[in-house]
TrEMBL record:
Pfam families: PNPOx_N (PF01243). The lineage of its organism: Bacteria, Bacillati, Actinomycetota, Actinomycetes, Mycobacteriales. It comes from the Bacteria. Transmembrane segments: none annotated. This is Pyridoxamine 5'-phosphate oxidase. InterPro entries: Pyridox_Oxase_N, Split_barrel_FMN-bd. Residues 8-108 form the Pyridoxamine 5'-phosphate oxidase N-terminal domain. PANTHER family: PYRIDOXAMINE PHOSPHATE OXIDASE FAMILY PROTEIN (AFU_ORTHOLOGUE AFUA_6G11440) (PTHR39336).
């Protein structure tokens, strides 16, 4: 039987940390399309406190989640165990997008691996319902490795490429809801782990990521 929790305790934090991926679900307020996005890279998700989580959002071919959060803020994050021990954990709440040129981003970035080359934003979520379920029909799978394809693809893209994406397929959702703003920062302005400390960036400074 599933259980509802009053907070993200140490056991739930451990379960979250063990999962190599998670899923994000959002939807527009009226009509439109429900979106579900799979997210990889273990170092892109963090539990900030007992009722707050966040993840590092990387550039992609669409921006449904950002558009839906700007529309209504509703979001569900799902973690699913593919190991011998079955479990599904869902975090329901209200999300918002933190731009990389904001002071808040600077305070959050230490929770993530900032070596990723296509950083778009951080999504923070105030969690109001925490519930698990059995997951008995989910297959048992073995993790071979994380894919580096996305980071590698972002490395090859220029500022002009990202600017076209910001003004193009990241500007609105597939239903026409506004997503990225025209002046959204390109990834080259975001400080990343491994950069020379003297490299000029847009007001993003600080230490490398902290242990999760």
């Amino acid at each position: 039987m599933g259980k509802v929790f009053d907070r993200i305790d140490d056991k739930l934090r451990a379960f979250i940390t063990e999962q190599p991926m998670f899923f994000v679900g959002t939807a527009p307020s009226v009509g439109g399309h429900v979106n579900v996005s799979p997210k990889g890279y273990r170092d892109t998700f963090a539990v900030l406190d007992d009722h707050t989580v966040a993840y590092l959002d990387l550039f992609g071919s669409g921006s449904e989640t950002i558009a839906h959060l700007r529309d209504n803020g509703r979001i569900t994050v799902m973690f699913c165990s593919f190991t011998r021990t079955t479990r599904i954990l869902r975090l329901f709440g209200a999300g918002r997008v933190v731009r990389p040129d904001s002071h808040e981003f600077d305070t959050l970035r230490g929770h993530f691996g900032t070596g990723h080359t296509g950083i778009r934003s951080v999504v923070t979520i105030s969690v109001d319902r925490i519930a698990d379920s059995c997951g008995w029909s989910v297959p048992k799978l073995d993790l071979v490795e994380e894919r580096s394809v996305l980071d590698e693809a972002h490395t090859r893209r220029t500022d002009a490429d990202f600017a076209r994406r910001i003004a193009g397929d990241n500007a609105t959702s597939i239903d026409g809801l506004p997503a990225l703003e025209p002046d959204h920062p390109v990834p080259s302005t975001v400080w990343r782990a491994g950069q020379d400390a003297g490299t000029e960036v847009t007001a993003i400074a600080g230490s490398d990521r902290l242990p999760r």
